[in-house]
Amino acid sequence: MKLSKTNYLIYQDCGKNAWLKIHKPEVYKSQPLSEFEMMIIETGNDVDTLARGLFPNGVLVEDRDDTELTKSLIEKKTPVIYQPVFETEKFKMISDIFVWNSEVGAYDVYEVKASNSGENKKAKDEIYSNDLAFQYVVLKENNIPINKLYLVRLNKEYIRAGDIDLNGLLTKEDFTDKVNGIIDAVSSDMDSAFGVLSQTEEPHGECKCITRGRSSHCTTFKYSNPDVSDYSIHDIARIGLSKKKLEDLVDMNLEKFSILEVPEDFELSDIQKNQVQVAQIDKKLIDKNAISEFLETIKYPISFLDYETFPSAIPRFSGYGPFNQIPFQFSLHIASEESIEPAHSEFIFSESTKPDIEFIEALQKQLPKTGSIIVWNKSFEMGINNKLVERNPEYKDFLENLNSKVVDLEDVFKKQMYVHKGFKGKTSIKFVLPTLSDLSYKELGIQNGAVASDTWNKIVTDQYSETDKQTQIQDLLKYCKLDTYAMYAIWKHLLSVI
């Protein structure tokens, strides 16, 4: 076995997960990649290919096992090499871009990441430093002359104007000092990882993710921790941010780590206590006065509005930056009074051109001039509107007026005016809706926002036949329509409660 860079980084996150990936791939792959995860991989490939334009006319090593071609290119001091392959007795890895620096007689290494230069930078820098350190250890063992180690990623400040400016879109950050500071530690850790992952006997017991919140669990958590209940201490809201609390709960050896077994006197926040309480006593917590006050702020006609967007890493249109959301669809249900079923209208843009103007003008045409606008998680829709203003200032008055009328229905659940065990500590509409009504997304062709986003991208990049394209457009319309009708149904339920 040769330990790859990818598997080493998985090992750093969870050693048992990495072992299962190598020795029991059927377990590791038992949960197929989600649409979101596949989008991340595809985005990474797109940005990696684009970054080669920073160093044109390079030679691509197409075979991911071709160390001989790589060796030949290195010996010839080939100016630019894409995807060179290296291995040692224990390790194997592929670099992104090698650039020969003739002034110092060594290669500069460029690692490309499809991430934004501003998001979670500290945490990501640590991962990227380990990535480059792994490469450096392997390269030094191969006696490759190395000068500098760089990270290439997207510049959050970049706004496209006309054709893409690669040097504006992509930053080149010198990580050499960061890597030099951890080389010895990473080299030692690589040897330890190789020792663990080359063993044929499966590591015993639970994986390290047992002391992490549910959203941070590894791919094989269920396999390694079969006794953990489906609704466990790991589902307590924001418990992953309270590492000591979660570790203390784990150390109590509660039966199946169930949320039902959390001691009444265990220190939790008020939000966490309420979540645990409703699960344990099997009763709802409803603050009717707070809900009543919230509902009184809503004015007729009531517009239930939802957007669908695509976060393009590489800006497709002028005025867009990396990962700026492209708004391509909305659904609208309008309730003129409580006793009448809401009227529905919708918009979808299925061309490959910039949708901004058509999107805004459809909103202008379909939204009432007065009344409240109900959304779920207002920071999203209002954020989209603010970006639309930046790109289309002639619509500023309309969009700012729209934002002034927005009411966030999720606030009822975020502020715990209504707490139900079926929410499992979440406030997503995907948890609230089936708990409070008979409505569900399960029968739809598209069941979540990530799939909707990916579907639209495939439509406008001609990845469907014309027949399939029309089918997918109809599925998108049905999905978004349920989002707004869901808000209407939840609003009606809240009225019945008070």
Short description:
Helix content is 44%, strand content 16%.
Strand order of the largest sheet: 2-3-6-7-8-9
Question: Whole-Å distance between the termini?
Answer: 64 Å
CATH architecture of the largest domain: 2-Layer Sandwich
What's the total count of β strands? 16
Shape: globular
Counting copies of identical and different chains, the oligomeric state is single chain
At the first level of CATH, the class of the largest domain is: Alpha Beta
- Rg measurement, Å: 26 Å
User: Number of helix segments?
Assistant: 20
* The CATH fourth-level homologous superfamily of the largest domain: Ribonuclease H-like superfamily/Ribonuclease H
Low-pLDDT regions: none
Question: How many separate structural domains?
Answer: 3
What CATH calls the topology of the largest domain is: Nucleotidyltransferase, domain 5
Average pLDDT, all residues: 96
- Structural class, from secondary structure content? alpha/beta
Biggest sheet, open or closed, and with what strands and sense? Answer: 6 strands, mixed
> How large a portion of the residues is in β-strands, by DSSP E?
15-25%
The level of helicity is 40-55%
